[in-house]
Structure prediction request, 126 residues.
Amino acid sequence: MHLPSLTPLPTLRPLSLQVQQEPSAETTEGTTISINCSHPNIKSNEFILWYRQLPGRGPTFLLSAHKGSKELRDPPGWLRVAADGRSSALWLARPRRGDVAVYYCALHLFPVEFWQLKVLPPFRHC
Prediction:
C-alpha cells in the first residue's frame, strides 16, 4: 500500500529565511521515513521545533530539541539534531495513512514545553 506524500513546508522568521525543507517526501505504509530540515544560521540559544498539520486541521506541536536525539511518541519516531545544530531530521518509524500531513520545523528561543509548564499569574489592569 502506497501512502500519499508527506509534505513539509518552509517556515519563515521575519525578514529572513531561517529553515529550509524539501517540498515533499514519500514512503509506503510501515516504512521508516526521514523528513529533513536545514537551519544553517541557527543561534546557540535557539531550539528546533517540529509541528504536524493533519488535513483540515490546525498545526499541532510534536516536539522540540536543542541537540542530540529525542523520542517521538505519537506518531512513533525520533528527532535527530546534527552535532553542529545546522540540520535536523524527523524520523517516522512506522508511518500509517493517518500520519499523512504537513510536517514543518521552526526555530525559537525557548522549547514549547517552556510555556506548557509555566503558569502565569492573572493579568491585572491598573
User: Anything to note?
Assistant: Residues 119 and 125 are 18 Å apart (CA to CA). DSSP finds one helix and ten strands in the chain.
